Amino acid sequence: MSPLPDPAAALAIFGSLVLLAAILFWPERGIVPRLRRLVELSERVRLEDAVKHLFNSAAAGRTASVDSLAGAVGVSRDRTVEVARELTRLGLARLEGEVIALTEAGRAHALRVIRTHRIWERYLADRTGVGAAEWHALADRLEHKASADEVDRLAASMGDPVYDPHGDPIPTASGVLPPARGLPLSAVAAGASARVVHIEDEPGQVYRSLRAAGVNVGCLVRLDRVDPAGLHLLADGRPVVIDSLAALNLVVELVEEDDTEEGLERLDAIRPGEEAIVVRLGAQIHGAQRRRLLDLGIVPGTVVRAELSSLSGDPVAYRIRGAVIALRRAQADDIVVRRRPRKEAA
Amino acid sequence: MNPLAAASACHGCAHRGESLIQLGVVPGRWDYLVALAGNPNTGKSTVFNALTGLRQHTGNWPGKTVARAEGTFRHGGKAIKIVDLPGTYSLQAASTDEEVARDFLLFGRPDVTVVVIDATRLERNLNLALQVLEITDRVVVVLNLMDEARRHGIGVNTDALARELGVPVIPAAARQGTGIGALRDAILQVATGAARPQPHRLRRLPADVESPIAEVLPAVEAAYPDTLGKRWVALRLLNGDERVLRAVPSGELGAKIVEARWRLPGDFQDRLTGALYAEAERIARASEVTGLRRVRVDLDKHLDRLLTSRWTGFPLMVLLLAVVFWLTIAGANVPSSMLASLLLDDVHPVLKGFGAAVGMPWWMSGFLFDGMYLATAWVVSVMLPPMAIFFPLFTLLEDFGYLPRVAFNMDRMFQRVGAHGKQALTMCMGFGCNAAGVVATRVIDSPRERLVAIITNNFSLCNGRWPTQILIASIFLGTLVPAHLAGITAAGAVVAIALLGVFFMFAVSWGLTRSVLKGEATTFSLELPPYRPPRILQTLYTSLIDRTAIVLWRAVVFALPAGAAIWLISNVHLGGGASIAATLVSALDPVGVLIGLNGVILLAYVVAIPANEIVIPTILMLTVHTLRLAGLGAGDGVMFELDDSGAVRQLLVGAGWTTLTGINLMLFSLLHNPCSTTIYTIYKETGSARWTAVATLLPLALGVSVCFLVAQVWRLLF
């Protein structure tokens, strides 16, 4: 039998192999994933991104130029001119000097790409555990991969959703897009109550800061006052201050004045022995999770009583509609309630 | 042809027969079809068992890993087939269970739907009942667990409830058998049309839910005039229910639906469920009987506080688990050795004698009796007694209602690594048998958490591996310490290995949820049912039968071929004169020694993929075989065991085994790939070759790496 390899050498070789594997395959940052992303950035991707940008500019009432397109697609000016020529050749756009405009065919194509993007975002929000901050970026990459049939099947499996998780309308398979609704928060008067229907996903930083503050599509806000510090809101019962740029990106629909936004708390503030009445499920709860909580009886008006805390404090068991259900603190934090005073509970 | 037409309009027609076949029901030899629906934990299966007795059979719904039971009973001269639907909280089809239930009610169009309701949780249960009433009017409601309600001082006025719901309501306590006779009568009456229920329909929905329905309803009525439950169909279309949308072709109705959906308020689903619950609450209030005295004084509450409090919760849990393990090990000892002496010492020679008497050639006798029979007998004698003790004990705890409290206590730890508290339960089941642990993951309905539980289940040291661990620990570790400490050391080493397995389970769960399982969906909910006195004898009996059947099946299907393979490789000689086994051992030796094992161990693990129990006998046989030792063992390819562990030690040490080999064998036994039964079960449960491959190869890679590292470090130090 041949002599055993020197253990130190064997360990060193093993360690190097592990290191090599990490460098190559580490998710997102490894060499192989990066190569894969580079390959994806193919011609089709560039064309579709260009078409999307042109459509969005037109919808916002801006004209698109070669420069703005270069910025949006992320390539050099020369490459952008090539892309624009390709679009013209395909009949999707017209290049007139510095201005590029979509044709009807281009518009239809853009709607298809947008539909795919928003369906993917809905899927990521409802069916996966991917975090909200990543929906847009991931959908940006996924939108170029699926065929129209696959997208239709995906949409059907989710019940043909009409809005994406940012509140943007999803074009139908035949390219119909309903009119946008709501107005930016910056146009709302102080003291008004409104429901958030849409949050712009770009600039990403503003979107993330709004979400971090607890402002999501579907949540109820009341604008208390505006001062140099920013706009003071009550978002689902929680006081929040946002700046004017964020207010521009937040689209809301006015609702009836309702001063019952006072005195709201979250379920995880209710300790064993205390009772509360459910006001609503928070807007961060999506898809299957939301349906399950609703089906268990956590609907507006339900009286919930905290019964039992587990030995580590999390989860806590609540009596809901006659049954005892345990919820994690992270979930309880998303449920908006109003505390029931002790003498009522007795 | 309207696929949604009422059952009454369509009884016996070809289209319905087609749907039924798709749903897995064989049409024909029965007069009426009954579906059994209800929330989880309502005693539905007890009702099912009470109605069908032993005339039932279980399986899976076609194409899904959801358990299904169907049975028949005769009443009033008619044959009635009853299908047990999965327990669901609702019919909104948010999970596979709900999809299955919804599809069956909608497209299977049973003649009668029986909804089992828990008298102690009336409001929540009425949510499902009201949804069922929207689809069909041939409903019978069973108000089950009346005995528990009495215990908790809850009273229900059955007549008032029947008036409110508009359908027959039968009070029952299925465990005691009361109410079952009345249920049979009611089912027959509704099925034959002798009773015509007029179910309550939701009429008082709030305005913003009613107006979209009102918009769409005329179009639905125009398209399908003879459909029952038009409002419900309209609701499902508005909700974008895929199956219903497919059953209804587009065209004008389709366009109307699309338009209406644009205008739905964002929280339509919330409002709809809210309206259902408001109605459920009203009905529950109208039917409650107040002023009853509690018979049992809050025993549940005290028990809960004891079992989940900071100071007593954890110790009691550990104690209970320790008792279960101890009972299993101690209790299985005698039956195992009795079975072993019967099957191996008594029956085996008889079989060999029989073979000789009929003039069987040596190779056939060897192949059949030494290879196939021995392996099967080994598996049965090692596996059967512990499984027959461990699982009934577990089922008792489950019946009692304790297991969800375990998940409740442990959830935080599992949350931190991205898993579900119920994984604590499947992990414990895995200590009995990994395949059973994998099947048990069905209680976790969140897909991601379920996959994590399945993939990491192998790190629970299953019953089949305990003998290996105990033997090796006493031979190689017990002998390192003074004799009076040997027993404790060996036991401690095995416990340490088991705990190491738990550690790896957490670590690998964490790793999986941070990488490959990052994008999977996640939901969490955990219901804590009330405590119920378990029916000890009944449970022990059924669990015993189940377990025995499974072990025997597994022994035959998986161990038999393994035994054949073992015998073959030891007796088939290649060109050069050495047996296949010997050749393979020499080939595997370099790799084996590198990672601190040897060729014999590696080959033994390859052929023993089907069953961990035969690893040690195979190792002993291969050692004797490759060393050509005379006087030991029973011949080439015949597995054996030595009664005296000292003799085993002598044999192994003589073959070159060191303490390192022993330790690494213990580690490898913990960390290698799952046994073939488990692999097969994982494939059936996940339906995905990809995840099965991950579940198989991940532990193996981990095992090889850990053994490798331990071996190098050991050699550096010693």
What does this protein structure show overall?
Chain A is an alpha+beta fold and 346 residues long. Among the domains of chain A are: 31-102, Arc Repressor Mutant, subunit A (Orthogonal Bundle); 183-259, Ferrous iron transport protein A (FeoA) (SH3 type barrels), CATH 2.30.30.90; 264-345, Ferrous iron transport protein A (FeoA) (SH3 type barrels, Roll). Chain A is 42% helix and 22% strand. Chain A contains 13 helices and 15 strands. Chain A has a six-stranded antiparallel sheet with strand order 4-9-5-6-7-8. In chain A, strands 10-15-11-12-13-14 form a six-stranded antiparallel sheet. In chain A, strands 1-3-2 form a three-stranded antiparallel sheet. In chain A, β12 (303-309) and β13 (316-320) form a beta hairpin. Chain A is globular, with a radius of gyration of 25 Å. In chain A, 38% of the residues are buried. The model of chain A has no long low-confidence stretch (mean pLDDT 82). Chain B is an alpha/beta fold and 718 residues long. Chain B has 30 helices and ten strands. Chain B has helices at residues 7-10, 14-22, 44-52, 96-108, 122-135, 146-151, 158-165, 180-192, 207-223, 230-238, 242-247, 252-262, 268-287, 299-308, 313-357, 362-400, 403-416, 423-432, 434-440, 447-456, 466-477, 483-514, 536-571, 580-594, 599-607, 615-627, 645-654, 659-671, 676-686, 689-717; strands at residues 32-38, 56-60, 67-75, 78-84, 112-118, 139-144, 155-156, 169-171, 288-289, 526-527. In chain B, β2 and β3 (67-75) form a beta hairpin. In chain B, α20 (447-456) packs across α30. The N and C termini of chain B lie far apart (82 Å). At the A-B interface, α1, α11, β12 and β14 of A face α5, α11, α12, α13 and α14 of B.
Defining traits:
heterodimer, A: 346 residues, alpha+beta, Arc Repressor Mutant, subunit A, SH3 type barrels, six-stranded antiparallel beta sheet, 22% strand, globular, B: 718 residues, alpha/beta, seven-stranded mixed beta sheet, two-stranded antiparallel sheet, 10 strands, 63% helix, 7% strand
